């Protein structure tokens, strides 16, 4: 690949990321952001490492604890720098999507288009805009790095041991970022199986990943009595997995993924269909760990971040096929026109509709911050859309001086004429 082409694509990808998500830099903290900062202060200093190691939930998010702590230490609880860090990680991750061009099954043309689409994709916006979702950005980074090392081990003739070691190291870092990193095991197996010229005996290298994943799950299961997600109803083995997976796939594909699939069925050849199948398999594999949730029938936006790579690959294949068709139809303007429509659709939805939603989500805690800075003896809430733990985290994060302020809701607050309604049209009880 020419260096000039790589630089141009990298610049385009970074620019699209900033244009799509740059407006989010002005957003204040949103609810769980305060809890994330408090957890960083608790677990990331050396004095908190033993507690982190013993916590069955947050030791699986250790990397985000350290990133949060370092940002808080450098800049204090200033939302601009936390939002900027999320945007920076999104740029890096989008460039990793471009790096998938090293995988011969994908190639540089497809990866370049996929990276540009991923950069502006609105589906996983929560992962980029909401800092509390930073574990999604970090697990993406380590899983993609591990997968690229695995591809290097499969395809390169030199330094094969180094490539394989890199895949294992990044896998461990991914497991320290979020539980969903276990999907790298299935992704690596898929990479072997889709290469006809790759001997199946290479699957032996997946075995260490599978063993580590099994041990990782076993450790979490043994600590289920103290593990938050085993007790708060977030996930369950009795969840409607198939329904959640189907609804999530449909929501993620709509509308541009569905259009690309339709074109592929009508006009695609066997090679294109195989590559599209890889994109669909990528989506299923990366959504599956989240399909056991019980509080929604669709995987939340932030959890679709890694799955959106599969969507981006499908859209990229669709645009390349459309280009071939447009040349036969003597309509060369079709691809630029469709590309512009896609960009306008993603940008307008991110800038207007989603930005307004995130402002509304941040409004209750922003109102609480303003009240707490007046240091009243108590704040009474007639309606607060988040848990009392969030309110307590807000108080502890913004200033040590407001810790004496009590946050009161429920029956006691309902009798007060000065009780504040923190709810709005988007977030409410």
Written overview of the protein:
The chain has 2 domains: 330 residues, no CATH class; 87 residues, no CATH class. It has 19 helices and 3 strands. It has a 3-stranded parallel beta sheet with strand order 2-1-3. The chain is 65% helix and 3% strand. The chain is globular. The longest helix has 39 residues. It has 429 residues and is an all-alpha fold.
How are the SSEs placed, and which strands pair?
Elements: H1 3-21, H2 32-43, H3 49-54, H4 62-75, H5 79-99, H6 108-120, H7 125-129, H8 134-155, H9 160-175, H10 183-193, H11 206-222, H12 228-231, H13 241-253, H14 256-267, H15 270-287, H16 308-328, H17 334-372, E1 378-383, H18 388-398, E2 406-409, H19 411-414, E3 420-421
Parallel strand pairs: 1-2, 1-3
Helix pairs in contact: 1-5, 1-6, 2-4, 2-18, 5-6, 5-8, 6-16, 8-9, 8-10, 10-11, 10-15, 14-16, 15-16, 16-17, 17-18
List keywords for this structure.
65% helix; globular; mainly alpha; three-stranded parallel β-sheet; 2 domains; 429 residues
Helix and strand string, N-terminal first?
HHHHHHHHHHHHHHHHHEHEHE
Compute the number of helices.
19
Strand content: under 5%
What is the helix fraction of residues, given as a range? 55-70%
């Amino acid at each position: 690949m020419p260096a000039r082409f790589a630089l141009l694509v990298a610049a385009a990808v970074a620019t699209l990321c900033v244009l799509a998500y740059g407006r989010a830099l002005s957003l204040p903290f949103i609810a769980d952001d305060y809890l994330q900062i408090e957890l960083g202060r608790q677990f990331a200093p050396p004095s908190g490492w033993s507690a982190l190691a013993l916590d069955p939930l947050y030791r699986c998010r250790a990397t985000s604890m350290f990133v949060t702590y370092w940002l808080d230490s450098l800049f204090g609880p200033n939302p601009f720098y936390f939002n900027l860090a999320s945007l920076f990680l999104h740029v890096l991750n989008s460039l990793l999507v471009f790096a998938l061009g090293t995988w011969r099954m994908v190639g540089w043309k497809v990866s370049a288009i996929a990276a540009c689409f991923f950069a502006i994709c609105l589906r996983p916006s929560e992962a980029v805009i909401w800092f509390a979702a930073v574990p999604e950005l970090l697990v993406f980074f380590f899983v993609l790095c591990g997968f690229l090392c695995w591809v290097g081990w499969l395809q390169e003739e030199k330094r094969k041991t180094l490539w394989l070691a890199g895949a294992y190291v990044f896998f461990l870092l991914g497991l320290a970022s979020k539980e969903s990193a276990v999907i790298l095991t299935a992704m690596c197996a898929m990479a072997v199986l889709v290469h006809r010229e790759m001997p199946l005996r290479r699957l032996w290298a997946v075995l260490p990943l599978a063993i580590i994943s099994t041990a990782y799950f076993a450790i979490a299961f043994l600590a289920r009595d103290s593990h938050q997600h085993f007790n708060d109803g977030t996930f369950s083995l009795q969840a409607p997995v198939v329904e959640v997976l189907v609804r999530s796939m449909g929501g993620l594909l709509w509308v541009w993924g569905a259009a690309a699939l339709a074109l592929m069925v009508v006009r695609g050849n066997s090679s294109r269909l195989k590559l599209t199948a890889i994109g669909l398999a990528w989506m299923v594999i990366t959504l599956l760990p989240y399909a056991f949730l019980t509080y929604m029938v669709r995987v939340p936006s932030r959890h679709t971040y890694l799955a959106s790579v599969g969507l981006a690959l499908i859209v990229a294949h669709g645009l390349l096929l459309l280009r071939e068709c447009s040349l036969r139809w003597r309509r060369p303007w079709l691809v630029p026109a469709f590309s512009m429509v896609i960009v306008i659709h993603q940008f307008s939805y991110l800038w207007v509709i989603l930005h307004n939603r995130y402002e509304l989500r941040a409004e209750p805690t922003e109102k609480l911050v303003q009240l707490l800075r007046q240091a009243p003896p108590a704040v009474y809430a007639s309606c607060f859309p988040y848990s009392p733990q969030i309110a307590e985290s807000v108080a502890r994060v913004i200033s040590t001086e407001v810790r004496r302020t009590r946050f009161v809701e429920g029956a006691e607050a309902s009798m007060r004429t000065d009780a504040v309604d923190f709810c709005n049209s988007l977030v409410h009880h």
